[in-house]
Write a structure and sequence with these properties.
Blueprint lengths: L1 E5 L4 H12 L3 E6 L13 E4 L5 H11 L3 E4 L6 H6 L1 H21 L4 E7 L22 H20 L2 E7 L1 E3 L17 H9 L5 E5 L11 E2 L1 E3 H16 L6 E5 L5 E2 H12 L4 E5 L8 E2 L4 H7 L8 H6 L3
Helix pairs in contact: 1-7, 2-4, 4-5, 6-8
This protein binds uridine-5'-diphosphate-4-deoxy-4-fluoro-alpha-D-galactose (UFG).
Length: 317
């Protein structure tokens, strides 16, 4: 298959590029390098492209005639989306609309979309399955939910087929050490803790200790980035298998760990102690996000390989 991996220079996208290439697919990364890194694209072709640029998209669709598009190119910071919502609606929602238009115009009708647990907001029940009501509490989650809604209409009207994957908390690195997670500035819990372990930061802050959770700190479901990438390949194979329906899947490991628990686990695994500061809440954070991935297991054969949070952390050490 010829695959466009939009956002292939980013954290999850670069892992996807590697796995898709090793699985024998022809891989083309499209990225504007706004948050990604050119040197993270280790396999396949690279094409500079901003998804807002319709002419450039059309040129690339004509050049490669891809069988499917995997779309990882989005801003994804909950806190930033609260202070700069325009950036999120413009890139994530308008940019994706533009990408979908180019797909339809060029008769490419297979789409894999990276959505997020943030579409759910604060959970009404746990674990969160695909039927759970969607009430996002931050612009990031809203920007992604709008795309999910657009996709339903694009399927009905234009026959665009899609698999939406809603990630819970992507974490870990490729075991080879070739690929990493690099954000500037870094805001994610595990990379920040690892910086603290290495002495690159003085302390790790816990954002809020008065949430309605087991120890008052936010609870998240961490899933290894290569497990996410593997199931994307299963998703694209499903789409290419013929006359199939569009699908939506939640992806996590089904177990929640609080911020305090994650800090303790890193201390245990690394044998290093470090300073922890109890800080104010960060705006836009739901208290608990834990996935039910039963549907992906039943229908796609999703089978996480690095499913213990300790093993996810070990890939970072
Ligand atoms: N946290 C801290 N201290 C830090 C950084 C984070 O206490 O220094 C807390 C956050 O408040 C949150 C938890 O650790 O409660 C996890 O935070 P991350 O920033 O690592 O991840 P998020 O849960 O905010 O978001 C991630 C992705 C989103 C996605 C979401 C879905 O960045 O794109 O998971 O669960 F929507």
């Amino acid at each position: 298959m010829t695959l466009f991996i939009v956002g292939g220079a980013g954290y999850i996208g670069s892992h996807m590029v590697k796995l898709a290439h090793l699985a024998g697919h022809k891989v083309i990364t499209l990225d504007n390098l706004s948050t990604g890194h050119r040197d993270a694209v280790l396999y396949g072709a690279f094409e500079y492209c901003d998804i807002q640029d319709a002419n450039r998209l059309n040129e690339l669709f004509k050049k490669y005639t891809p069988d499917a598009v995997m779309h990882f190119s989005a801003y994804s910071l909950v806190g930033e989306s609260m202070s700069d919502p325009y950036k999120y609606y413009n890139n994530n929602t308008v940019g994706t609309l533009n990408l979908l238009k180019a797909m339809i115009d060029n008769d490419c009708k297979n789409f894999i979309f990276s959505s997020t647990a943030a579409v759910f907001g604060n959970p009404e029940y746990i674990p969160i399955d695909e039927k759970h009501p969607k009430n996002p509490i931050n612009p990031y989650g809203k920007s992604k939910l709008m795309i999910e809604q657009m996709l339903e209409d694009f399927d009905s009207a234009y026959g665009l087929k899609y698999v939406v994957f809603r990630y819970f908390n992507a974490a870990g690195h490729d075991e080879s050490g070739e690929l990493t997670e690099r954000h500037d500035p870094e805001t994610h819990l595990l990379p920040l803790i690892m910086q603290t372990v290495r002495g690159e930061r003085e302390a790790i802050s816990i954002y809020g200790n008065d949430y309605d959770t087991k120890d008052g700190t936010c609870v998240r479901d961490y899933i290894h980035v290569n497990d996410l990438s593997r199931v994307h390949l299963q998703g694209v194979e499903y789409l290419m298998s013929g006359d199939v329906d569009s699908k939506v899947y939640n992806l996590g490991n089904g177990e929640g760990f609080s911020v305090k628990e994650i800090i303790e686990k890193v201390k245990e695994i690394t044998g290093k102690d470090f300073k922890v500061i109890e800080d104010e809440r960060r705006a836009g954070d739901p208290d608990t996000l834990i996935a039910s991935s039963q549907r992906a297991k039943d229908e796609l054969g999703f089978k996480p390989e690095v499913d213990r949070v300790e093993d996810i952390i070990k890939t970072l050490v």
